[in-house]
Amino acid sequence: MLLRDPGFDRSLLWNPAPLANSLNSILIPFALAVVGIGLGVLHFAPRLLFNFVRVNPGLWALVMLLYPVLSVYPQSIIYRAFLMHRYQTLFISPWALILGSGMAFSLMHLIFRNPLAPALTLIGGILFAYRYQRTGSLFVSSLEHSLYGCFLFTIGLGRYFYARVI
């Protein structure tokens, strides 16, 4: 649908140019999240800490390679590019649109039937929608989404975001 819409700027789907100017605003919050989530896992679920890497390093490596391409980018097209283009006129402000995108992204994660998935994806969805709107780059937003997702799988929380638990 997006590709057939004459009002949609296709360059938004792959525009790496804003990455250089966005690195600090991506990496600083990511570093803080790594520390906070890492300490949370260490305190509340220490048995999960790096469990995926320890138990199945081959599958973990495969997830690190395929997750950004097969999961993150398609989700980014749906919850950022499509939703924010198609429904922007329904929202009263850019921030309302960002919140709507984040909420839709979070609601999709209800299928995993645990409170952690929608809670974390609400925060992430708002962050990724903000990044997409600010940079005009699905590439940059998807890269940020990939960082957080790969980290969650690595730190031991991937089990809360994996379809096998459905």
TrEMBL record:
Domain named CAAX prenyl protease 2/Lysostaphin resistance protein A-like: residues: 60-148
The keyword Membrane belongs to this UniProt entry's keyword annotation: yes
Keywords: Membrane, Transmembrane, Transmembrane helix
The protein, known as: CAAX prenyl protease 2/Lysostaphin resistance protein A-like domain-containing protein
Superkingdom, natural source: Bacteria
InterPro entries named in the record: Rce1/LyrA-like_dom
One Pfam entry name: Rce1-like
Transmembrane segments annotated in the record for this chain: 26-45, 57-78, 90-108, 115-133, 145-162
GO MF annotations, alphabetized: endopeptidase activity
Native source species: Acidisarcina polymorpha
GO biological process: CAAX-box protein maturation
